[in-house]
Design a protein that fits this description.
The structure holds two protein chains of two kinds.
Chain A: H1 5-8, E1 12-16, E2 26-30, E3 33-40, E4 43-47, E5 53-54, E6 56-59, E7 62-65, E8 86-95, H2 99-106, H3 112-115, E9 132-136, E10 141-151, E11 162-172, E12 175-181, E13 189-200, E14 203-212, H4 219-237, E15 245-246, H5 259-270, E16 277-278
Parallel strand pairs in A: 15-16
Antiparallel strand pairs in A: 1-7, 2-3, 3-4, 4-5, 6-7, 8-14, 9-10, 10-11, 11-12, 12-13, 13-14
Chain B: E1 7-11, E2 17-21, E3 35-37, E4 40-42, E5 49-50, E6 56-58, E7 75-81, E8 84-88, E9 103-111, H1 118-125, E10 128-134, E11 137-141, E12 148-155, E13 161-168, H2 173-189
Antiparallel strand pairs in B: 1-2, 2-7, 3-4, 4-5, 5-6, 7-8, 9-13, 10-11, 11-12, 12-13
The chains are: A alpha+beta, B mainly beta.
The structure holds FE2/S2 (inorganic) cluster (FES) and fe (ii) ion (FE2).
């Protein structure tokens, strides 16, 4: 299937800047197409299989490209300009499922006690309190706010259990950002996010980042914490059936805790996104 | 698997065997990763639990909510008979195969290509048909083995096939070992290259 226009018109992160060192052209796959990244004296450029050059830009520690000649602007994250924040990037991790499934998993608090047991949740605090979901019509993005969850060890800097407050943002079909209360500073948010590179309809590479105020943990410590969590999620993601995201309500049944996932699916549908979506199969 | 359908098999405390579509109705997680507690199966992803009939019995994110009756797994028919587990589509009205006597499971092996039918399997073993049970199962007599044996195969389409054997519960260890060796031989008979 050819990407629908919503999918086609987006910018996609295809690696960290440091992943493209050296003069050799590097192959990259995006939306079922083979691309090449060239590095000429430190200047990165991207070309498609016919050698046509694609638009590219460096932002948020990553190289972004688009298949479109007239892409939608890449969303803003002003937090990247704030002093004192530390950016840690994890590098790409391949996951055998649609990248849309990864976004949905990231928005989901109900799995914390079962998948991230004793880190992001505990079994006897499994309740998901109601939270607010809203659409920012100007920017065409989704926000889930007032999300609260009891967490025994919310981040690498946390020292004990706490009610953690979260906000989630979905500014792009393949990007999502979590804003969580900073354990060491008041009234600021730490950011954790995913830039997903859709490789095939049912295969993706997840580039994750952390942008935090944390003076104590090393980059490696922060990275390990995040990687550990992500590997737990990957085990789930690769065992969801079907691998593409089903939008047909006959296929998967949500509950109140899934309000953000419901909004996400509705938003994808409203934007007529089709690439990466599982069609309903009566026989299944 | 039945054909190309992925199945989660589990047995509760009550000893009853259950076969469900291997997909949680909530967000599609494979139920075979779930945890059996008493007579319920709990999904690994969000902990939704399902009772023995496939109905949702609890949603941990909302402990006070009684799950709507519409949340159900797809349930296949499942039964124990002749030391083997039998599964059928719910739409099919076939009886559970009645197999006389007490049988002990022997081996389950994977082969690349499914036997064309029970006759092909009988021939592959070099056996004589004693009684046909279904299109995929029979009691056979094999030269040099003192007991009748029960053989059944499961066609998993592009995933190959499983061949299961059982011997009478009273069979000696020597018989059990001979049947086990026979299974290994079958892997050669139903190799991918022999299909061509
Ligand atoms: S996918 Fe099974 S409980 Fe959510
Ligand atoms: Fe997770």
């Amino acid at each position: 299937m050819k990407p629908d226009s919503f999918t086609h018109s987006q910018w996609y992160a295809i690696g960290r800047i440091g992943d493209f060192e050296g003069a050799n052209a590097k192959p990259v796959r995006l939306l079922s197409q083979d691309l090449t990244v060239n590095n000429s004296a430190g200047v990165l450029s991207v070309a498609d299989a016919e050698g046509r050059s694609l638009q590219s830009q460096i932002r948020y520690g990553h190289l972004w490209t688009t298949l479109s000649d007239n892409p939608r602007p890449l969303y803003d994250m002003p937090e990247f300009d704030e002093p004192d924040r530390r950016l840690v990037t994890a590098g790409g991790v391949g996951v055998r499922c649609s990248g849309l499934r990864c976004v949905e998993n990231f928005l989901d608090m109900a799995h914390f006690p079962f998948v991230h047991t004793d880190i992001l949740g505990v079994e006897d605090h499994s309740t998901v309190e109601n939270y607010d979901v809203s659409m920012d019509a100007d920017k065409d993005e989704i926000w889930a706010t007032k999300c609260k969850f009891f967490q025994p060890l919310a981040s690498a800097a946390a020292t004990g259990g706490q009610m953690t407050e979260y906000k989630y943002r979905v500014p792009h079909p393949y990007s999502t950002i979590l804003y969580k209360t900073c354990p060491i500073r008041e009234n600021v948010w730490d950011l954790v996010g995913l830039f997903i590179q859709p490789v095939e309809e049912d295969e993706c590479i997840v580039h994750s980042f952390i942008l935090v105020f944390d003076e104590d943990n090393t980059d490696t410590g922060l990275l390990h914490f995040q990687q550990n969590i992500f590997l737990q999620d990957r085990m789930i993601l690769e065992n969801q059936v079907p691998r593409k995201l089903p939008l047909d309500p006959r296929w998967e049944l949500p509950t109140r805790a899934d309000a953000s996932s419901i909004a996400y699916r509705r938003w994808l549908k409203a934007n007529e996104l089709q690439w990466g979506i599982a069609l309903f199969d009566k026989a299944a | 698997m039945i054909g190309d359908k992925d199945i989660a098999l589990w047995r509760g405390e009550d000893g009853k065997i259950r076969a469900w579509e291997n997909r949680c109705p909530h967000r599609g997680m494979r139920l075979s990763y779930g945890i059996v507690r008493g007579n319920t199966l709990t999904c690994l992803y969000h902990g939704w639990s399902y009772d023995g009939t496939g109905g949702c019995a609890g949603i941990p994110a909302h402990p006070d909510l009684t799950p709507p009756k519409t949340i159900r797994t797809k349930v296949y028919r499942a039964a124990d008979s002749g030391g083997m587990i039998w599964v059928a589509n719910p739409e099919e009205a076939t009886e559970v195969p009645a197999i006389d006597g007490a049988w002990a499971p022997n081996r389950s092996i994977h082969v690349d290509v499914a036997p064309a039918n029970i006759a092909a399997l009988t021939e592959g073993i070099g056996a004589e048909l004693q009684s046909k049970i279904t299109d995929h199962a029979a009691i056979l007599r094999v030269p040099n083995i003192e007991e009748d044996i029960l053989v059944a195969f499961l066609d998993m389409k592009e995933h190959g096939a499983m061949i299961h054997t059982a011997v009478p519960a009273k069979a000696t260890e020597a018989v059990a070992i001979a049947v086990s060796k026979l299974s290994t031989h079958l892997r050669q008979v139903f190799k991918a290259s022999s299909a061509a």
